[in-house]
Model the fold of this input.
Amino acid sequence: MRLKPRTYQLYVWQEVFRVSLVSLFIFLGFYLVIDFFERLGDFLKFGKPFYLFGRYVFWKNLVNLYEVFPFVVGLSGVLTLFIWAKTNELMGFLSLGVAKGVLLRETGKALLGIGILGGVFLNLVLPYATFNALYTWEYKIAGKKKQQVVFGDQIFFTGDDCYLIAKPLEPKGEYLGEITVVVYDKDKRVLSLLWAASGYYSQGRWVLKEVVQQRREKGFSPEFLPQASYRFSFEPDTLTTVKKPVYFLSIPELIERARFLAKINSPYQEVVAELFLKGFYLFVPFLLAVFSVFAFLKFFVPNDWKKGAFLGIGLFFLNLVYFLFFQTLLRKGFMLGIPALVVWGLAGLFWYFWQAYLVFLKKSGKN
Done:
């Protein structure tokens, strides 16, 4: 069994990687120019050191990289063939006896490898990059003041009428553990003390469980309550340093969020959709491009290669529209019902697995 790749295989992989890298730099440069001039005017009003603006742009560009990566890498698979056709390298491959099916398979492998490796890295980096971009802009540049201090895994919050010490159990600040609340009046005299094992935010109130309560009017004698509801001056948004949309949460944070929503019997379809899309993200470059590459090679002829090129690029954008439409429906909650999933699932299985069959199972055949 031959494990070492042949020279032409390495060349195909390297070319797809090189075109992907150049394409990503071009797209990120375009986004960099937009972000720079869009935010520069606001930044100058704050009068902060320019290195902070550079830090913000750096982290924001990593977020942009996550957003364009699968689409640019997929397009690069088609662009690689476009370049080969224009420089006659594709004709050279075929003249040397390398079948079209072999080129399809190796291009597909390259797209799959880049998509999985790059996707895993970006899924890990995205939450950190998002936090730093938002934190740098909102607190370091805009000068927004934090209302809480995070020490270890605990939050220390000081409000107008209370102190809070708690352990966040969920990334959006709606579920807390090991809660201590001190409520006081305008003269800072203590009115009540509360301890609770856990608590969650629902409909404008905090629902605390396993509560020990001491109130001034009762001489601070302890009361034990299995559950109690309170309205405090702090809300979940107050307890989070920066507010991140579900789209930018990490996989562990999404799992924590889903568990919390399930615990309080609240809909969590949005979180399930994002968990699915995080995994699907790794395969998007391959799924977007492989059928386009197949069509390019299928209709390639040396004297009229432009027909295959335009057909391949056209099919890529058709695939892209299909994916974006599905992604939008999924995030809006329309694709989580059983009938909708069955309809899309059958269409998706046929559409995508047939493309995988073309690359990995179908024999190469003749040129």
In short: The beta strands are 148-151, 154-158, 162-168, 175-184, 190-202, 205-215, 223-230.
